[in-house]
Structure formats: C-alpha cells, structure tokens
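User: Can you predict the 3D structure for this chain?
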Amino acid sequence: MRAVTKQVRTAITFAFVLMISLSVPGAAAQASTPSGAPEGALPARRGECATPSIDRLQQWLASGEGTTVPRTGSLLVPEGGRYAAKVTFLNNEWHVAVVWLGNQFEAQADLSASSGFWLTYSADEDLYVQLRPASHWSGGDKWLTRIPATGGKIVTTFFGFAPDSWTWLPELGKPSYSFASALGEARGLVFVGKTPNKLDFRGLRIDGYTPPCR
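Assistant: Here is the predicted structure, written as structure tokens:
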C-alpha cells in the first residue's frame, strides 16, 4: 500500500511541475545555442519600456514594402501578459519588416564588441535578416544571414556576428561597405523574405547592448 501511495504522490508531483512549466511565458520555446554564443547563453530579460516593447525594442514595423498583414505600422500585439511582433508575408515577392535598434530612426548602436543576438520566433518558411547601418540604410544591397523556418514552433536561436556567418544575395546586390563598419553604426535589423510566411517574434536580445526606451 505504501508503494502505491508513493507512486501516486510521484505522479501528482510530476503533473504539478509540468503544469507550472507550461504556464510560464516562453516555456514552450525550444532553445538552440550554437558555438560562438557567449558564456551563460541567453541573458536575463531586462525590464520592458513603459510603452509596448519586446526586450526594450519598441519599434517593430511593417515598412509597406511587399504585401504584408499589417500593411504598415507597428507589429506589436498583446500576447500572454507581454507583447509579440506578428506579421504575415503574402505572395511571392520581397517583403520587409523592420526593427529600429535605438527605438527611433535617427539612432544607431555600436555593436562592434557584440558576439550576436538571440531571437525567439516562429516562421513557416526561411527568411533573412539584414544588418542595416545608418550610412547605408536604403536599398537591398545589405549584409544578411538566414533565419531558418521553425515549422510553426516558437524557438530561441543565437545568431553570431562572425563575418563568415553573414553574406549577401546577388539578386539584392553586393554591399559597398564592410560588415565590420555596419556593426559600428547599426541602425536596424531588417527581416526580409520573398515567399509567403507567417512570422511571430517573442524576443530579441543583443549581447552587450541595452536598447534605450523612448
């Protein structure tokens, strides 16, 4: 009888722990920390801004380039007591979604000493993220890296700033500046894709950089 009681208690304890873990925001996210990530992996979440933000980044925007939902304006929506940035790319054409790193267009960040960033997201299809510098903001000829599809699951993945991890696409043009110079005057991370896609962003933490609330 005691053995049966112990098994029942163990089962109840396991169910309770599982229930708690699933109730925590982001608990369902899968984590991936490839080589190159700093020691300690994903840093602690910092306090959010007074206005809607994700990891203190307040400006998640649909640029109006490509057919998207929403077409323009903020991508931020309430999600589980926090905010998520959600956008759908439609049609087979280039689409653009923008994150201003300094929370205003004129601002820029020096990421020269940063090892990279952690992105918590889901995506139905592969896409790219461009690192756009203040001095070469416009145009598609930017340094970029691939953001893999997740099969609709929320995952957390580290993307390093090692130069050999970033490239360019012949269709969009070769950058006329170095990747190192782009890191020194980073104005934004710009997500681009040419296929229909459903994107859901839950976190973006950059090693060594704290966005200023505006």
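Helices lie at 2-23, 179-184. Residues 26-206 form a domain with the Jelly Rolls fold (CATH 2.60.120.260).
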